[in-house]
């Protein structure tokens, strides 16, 4: 099974043959540095560059060659870091044009501090890509189609979270909240798709509940999504769901700062 945030591949070389050169790799990879460490360093340098250069939403990053040389890292590692942040909706690579910042400068400190290279999490990052394809649209459709009873169902799962903001309750009610939104979208094909993905979606919801360092923030985002749906604002509902999935994604691939998760667990116990 491929590892999380794929991009580096092992090359099989026959005995007696030399490995082909890689001219696009400006700096050699440090074989002594763990892959996760190199990736963390690349993300930290990207964050530092964007902050110090005041590269706000829409700004273009320097070329890969220039970044790799400036950071002193190999281009494969740089590409992994850019891909991870692109999946989160923080950066965007446009073919033939370059890489652009797609999130506001104020979101800078929500970037992942640690990257988890755990095979058990491999499907989650790919699943998140799929969720970003259909869940915002489902929220938008729900805003224009939800019946009164469907709105009450969505709200009931939100209120359950607000009444008891613990990891256990969030793990259960988060799943039901999102299911209710997909049901309210009124598209049977979408509903069937979500049903097919249900085992992985359930894992994703539980992972969110287990890893998020800020349960109240997740619930607040659920409240914003619900409010947009309840007043029929499709664009706002889509935007709110997109922002929520960005937060979820950062929680999946990052570890909380030391002590943050412990404090949250204390609140939840």
- The percentage of residues in β strands lies in under 5%
Shape: elongated
Q: pLDDT average, as an integer?
A: 77
The main sheet comes to: 2 strands, antiparallel
Approximate helicity band: 55-70%
**Strand order of the main beta sheet, please?**
1-2
Structural class: mainly alpha
Number of strands: 2
Question: Could you give the order of the helices and strands?
Answer: HHHEEHHHHHHHH
Number of helices: 11
**Unreliable runs, pLDDT <50, ≥5 residues?**
1-27, 113-122, 255-269
Termini Cα gap:
36 Å
- How large is the radius of gyration? 20 Å
What does this structure look like?
The chain has 269 residues and is an all-alpha fold. The protein has eleven helices and two strands. It has helices at residues 35-52, 64-71, 75-87, 122-145, 148-163, 167-184, 188-196, 198-211, 215-230, 234-253, 260-268; strands at 91-94, 98-101. A two-stranded antiparallel ribbon has the order 1-2. The radius of gyration is 20 Å and the shape is elongated. 31% of the residues are buried.
Task: For the structure shown, list the relevant keywords.
disordered N terminus; elongated; 11 helices; two-stranded antiparallel ribbon; 269 residues; mainly alpha
Provide a short characterization of the protein structure:
With 269 residues, the chain is mainly α. 61% of the residues lie in helices and 3% in strands.
